[in-house]
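User: Can you recover a sequence for this backbone? Please restate the input before giving your answer.

Assistant: Of course. Working from this structure:
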């Protein structure tokens, strides 16, 4: 599962976890070190955000993570959408227990992808999580500091919708979020929330990888014609206004709905789907904008040849 890094033997002299802060208790200092030790093994942290629920954020997060893992990257998928953890359903991991050992919690394995979800803590899928803010912030922190992620190239985080306490807790806990994917739908009421997400990222100094307009048009399974049921282009227009990249559209595809319902990632089971092609393009964008050290070394080697 990967050894726990030790702050005492770490060679990083500029790490803030090396020294105890003024006014910090011993317990607080040790907790901060535990968190730093986990984060040290994660090269790139990607937050998947949405201004509101129901736009397909979790579907995008799950399939981006599966696609990264399929390309050979050591990848983790963290679902901290406390009140609507849908990652277990999307990956067919419902009722999957999560186990722990002395060093921490062990992620659930999905074909090499390391998965942790708030849904794994529920006794049944219809159980409601009735927690107040401090308790939710605590579980978010534990998911990062107490999970045996090991060495990861990418950690994809399915954040709670909106720009309130919960996504703020996620970003603060991760300390450094390398990039954000923002998911919206074509309707004006959803697209306007993109502005809130972009401003949220700017306030926290999180680079926006780009905006994805999901459920943009209906893809007919018989003739492959896309019919625009809702107003289209809202995401693209707002991206121009906010000066952030637009990563494209994903149409409503019956195959995607089927894959989600039966717990199969569509990037694996429907390789010819327009949605799959779009997710793979997004992964290529991630590789270019957020290269891991391995990729950086390879690019340097190629440049020298």
């Amino acid at each position: 599962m990967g050894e726990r890094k030790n702050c005492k033997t770490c060679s990083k002299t500029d790490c803030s976890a090396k020294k105890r802060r003024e006014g910090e208790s011993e317990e607080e200092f040790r907790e901060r070190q535990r968190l730093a030790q986990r984060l040290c093994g994660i090269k790139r942290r990607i937050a998947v955000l949405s201004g509101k629920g129901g736009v397909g954020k979790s579907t995008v997060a799950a399939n981006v993570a599966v696609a990264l893992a399929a390309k050979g990257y050591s990848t983790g998928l963290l679902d901290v959408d406390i009140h609507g953890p849908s990652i277990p359903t999307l990956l067919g991991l419902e009722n999957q227990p999560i186990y722990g050992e002395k060093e921490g919690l062990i992620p659930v394995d999905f074909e090499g992808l390391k998965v942790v979800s708030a849904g794994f803590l529920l006794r049944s899928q219809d159980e409601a999580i009735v927690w107040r803010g401090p308790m939710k912030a605590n579980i978010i922190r534990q998911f990062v500091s107490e999970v045996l992620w090991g060495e990861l190239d990418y950690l994809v985080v399915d954040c709670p919708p909106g720009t309130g306490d919960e996504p703020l807790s996620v970003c603060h806990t991760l300390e450094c979020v390398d990039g954000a994917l923002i998911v919206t739908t074509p309707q004006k009421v959803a697209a306007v929330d993109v502005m809130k997400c972009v401003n949220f990222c700017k306030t926290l100094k999180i680079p926006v990888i780009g905006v994805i307009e999901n459920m943009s048009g209906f893809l007919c399974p018989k003739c492959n014609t896309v019919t625009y049921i809702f107003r289209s282009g809202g995401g693209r227009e707002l991206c121009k206004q906010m000066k952030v990249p637009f990563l494209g559209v994903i149409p409503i595809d019956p195959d995607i709905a089927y894959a989600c319902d039966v717990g199969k990632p569509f990037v694996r089971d429907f390789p010819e789907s327009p949605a799959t092609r779009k997710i793979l393009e997004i992964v290529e964008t991630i590789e270019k904008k957020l290269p891991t050290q391995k990729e950086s070394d390879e690019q340097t080697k190629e440049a020298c040849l």
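That completes the design. Residues 17 and 169 are 19 Å apart (CA to CA).
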